[in-house]
């Protein structure tokens, strides 16, 4: 206000400026050396303080960023873990539903028995002759019961082996040298009707000696295409087991050679590893394995040409048949380099291992391996006296999967498991699931090798489809009491994924064979094992997915 007194002075509240600081600045020695040094020291100290503080702040910031990164990574891992747990739960639920579906599909209602036949109006037929008190000899499947009406042929009908005539009412036996292994008799195939051209014809039993006779058909249906009889897969004396033993001796012989042949010692191991590596690199797709094929071919050619010196051996120790020189054959000499046969053995071993290790869980992986096996053993450059040396591969098949050669056995006994190829590790049998995986891989591998179409190739199929047919017949003709789960697993893996090739090769006869293998064979099994159920499920899948009704 205009008349009010002025505000009191506040000089008492504020101190006077620091006269000392100004006096120092205005002093005469402000430019002295000592003063400059003190100023520099203070500036350096301040600089160090600022830098240390900046470093501390930076480190604190980096620490915070690291903590944030770890938290984010932890959250990401937890999210991935939850996602994986949810996926596993969904897969488990899906597997349970699929298993429930398979169980339902495997169930079936038994069919009614057929109506009893009408009593014959004619006089009772004369009893069939008894052979050594064993019972009447059955008539062949293609025999015609009434004139003018031909009965339907059964493609896998078991018939007497025509290899030797009966003497004194006793059939001649096949000698078996492998202990505890009893092969089944080879099952020739009956003749088909005129509507189905079956390339495997039935063999008529030969006349018995010393007055004993066997039943003969009154009339037979002529096959559309006559063919030669199928040879049994297991030769007399189990030659494949002998070949497998000879291959072990060959390996020991090569190791003995390496003691005095350093070139062989150095190269032999490298070549074996290259073959194993090439087999492990096989993939699906046409032309995808050309490099692997050429690499294996080059290694075999190198050993065969003698570039790596090795002793000569007689190849007949590793073949089923005794061979004579053939005109035009690439190799007619009585001996071949032992390193070449050793590498063929390594190739066969690698093929078997691929079937076992890779194809049990993923059967589709067997096809490229089967292609390589068929191509390598079909090359004429690697034949001896005009024939393939695939007996080396099949000798290993005979040991690891005897079922494809007609062997049978009970899975509840030690000897039966040995006959079926059940493997031992550390003196104990492997688990049932491991055995099933092995047989699955070997079964699909056998099909991938046997069902190859060589119609457009200049080479000859080393293991033709007729071998596949014979193997299937030897399994489905098993008596009901001797059917094993191993047989069913092998049969299922032989058929599934290769039904198209089988039908392409045999046409209508293949349809009849599939009906016998997938419907009739599991239907007569006394126990509903997983293998039996698997065969029935395959038949139902063909009906559902392919429209192929085998019932």
UniProtKB/TrEMBL annotation:
Q: Name one GO biological process term.
A: protein transport
InterPro entries the record matches:
GLE1, GLE1-like_sf
Keyword Protein transport attributed:
yes
Q: Where is this region: Disordered?
A: 1-50, 101-128, 154-219
GO MF annotation list: inositol hexakisphosphate binding; phospholipid binding; translation initiation factor binding
Compositionally skewed regions (Pro residues) per UniProt: 111-120
Q: Where is the composition biased (Polar residues)?
A: 12-22, 187-216
The Basic and acidic residues compositionally biased stretches are: 27-50
Tell me, in one coarse class, where this protein mainly resides. nucleus
GO cellular component annotations of the record: cytoplasm; nuclear pore cytoplasmic filaments
Q: Which UniProt keywords apply?
A: mRNA transport, Nuclear pore complex, Nucleus, Protein transport, Translocation, Transport
Q: Gene3D superfamilies attached here?
A: GLE1-like
Q: Which family does it belong to?
A: Belongs to the GLE1 family.
Annotated protein name in UniProt: mRNA export factor GLE1
């Amino acid at each position: 206000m205009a008349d009010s007194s002025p505000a009191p002075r506040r000089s008492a509240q504020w101190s006077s400026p620091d006269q000392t600081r100004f006096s120092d600045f205005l002093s005469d020695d402000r430019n002295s050396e000592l003063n400059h040094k003190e100023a520099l020291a203070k500036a350096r100290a301040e600089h160090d303080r600022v830098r240390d503080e900046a470093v501390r702040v930076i480190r604190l910031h980096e620490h915070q960023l690291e903590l944030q990164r770890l938290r984010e990574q932890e959250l990401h891992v937890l999210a991935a873990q939850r996602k994986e747990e949810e996926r596993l739960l969904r897969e488990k639920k899906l597997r349970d539903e699929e298993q429930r579906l398979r169980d339902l599909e495997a169930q079936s209602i038994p069919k009614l028995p057929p109506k009893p036949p009408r009593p014959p109006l004619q006089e009772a037929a004369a009893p069939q002759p008894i052979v050594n008190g064993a019972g009447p000899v059955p008539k062949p499947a293609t025999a015609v019961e009434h004139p003018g009406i031909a009965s339907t042929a059964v493609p896998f009908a078991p018939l007497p082996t025509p290899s030797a005539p009966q003497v004194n009412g006793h059939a001649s036996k096949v000698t078996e040298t492998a202990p505890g292994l009893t092969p089944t008799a080879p099952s020739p195939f009956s003749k088909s009707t005129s509507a189905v051209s079956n390339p495997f014809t039935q063999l008529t039993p030969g006349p018995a000696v010393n007055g004993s006779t066997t039943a003969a058909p009154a009339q037979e249906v002529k096959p559309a295409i006559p063919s030669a009889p199928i040879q049994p897969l297991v030769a007399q004396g189990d030659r494949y087991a002998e070949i497998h033993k000879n291959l072990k001796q060959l390996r020991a012989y090569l190791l003995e050679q390496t003691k005095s042949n350093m070139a062989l010692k150095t190269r032999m191991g490298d070549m074996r590893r290259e073959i194993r590596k090439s087999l492990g690199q096989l993939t699906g797709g046409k032309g995808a394995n050309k490099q692997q094929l050429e690499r294996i071919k080059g290694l075999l050619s190198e050993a065969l040409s003698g570039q790596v010196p090795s002793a000569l051996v007689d190849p007949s120790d590793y073949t089923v048949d005794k061979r004579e020189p053939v005109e035009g054959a690439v190799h007619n000499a009585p001996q071949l380099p032992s390193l070449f046969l050793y590498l063929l053995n390594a190739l066969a071993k690698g093929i078997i291992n691929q079937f076992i290790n890779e194809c049990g869980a993923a059967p589709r992986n067997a096809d490229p391996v089967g292609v390589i096996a068929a191509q390598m053993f079909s090359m004429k450059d690697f034949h001896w006296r005009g024939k393939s040396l695939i007996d080396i591969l099949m000798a290993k098949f005979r040991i690891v999967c005897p079922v494809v050669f007609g062997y049978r056995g009970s899975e509840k006994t030690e000897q039966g498991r040995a006959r079926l190829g059940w493997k031992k590790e550390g003196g104990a049998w492997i688990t049932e699931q491991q055995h099933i995986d092995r047989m699955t891989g070997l079964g699909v591998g056998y099909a991938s090798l046997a069902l190859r179409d060589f119609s457009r190739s200049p080479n000859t199929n080393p293991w033709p489809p007729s071998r596949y047919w014979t193997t299937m017949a030897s399994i489905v003709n098993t008596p009901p009491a001797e059917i094993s789960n191993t047989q069913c697993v092998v049969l299922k893996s032989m058929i599934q994924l290769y039904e198209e090739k089988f039908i392409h090769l045999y046409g209508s006869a293949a349809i009849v064979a599939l009906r016998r293998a997938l419907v009739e064979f599991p239907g007569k099994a006394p126990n509903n094992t997983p293998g039996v159920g698997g065969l029935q499920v395959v038949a139902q899948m063909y009906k559902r997915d392919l429209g192929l009704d085998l019932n």
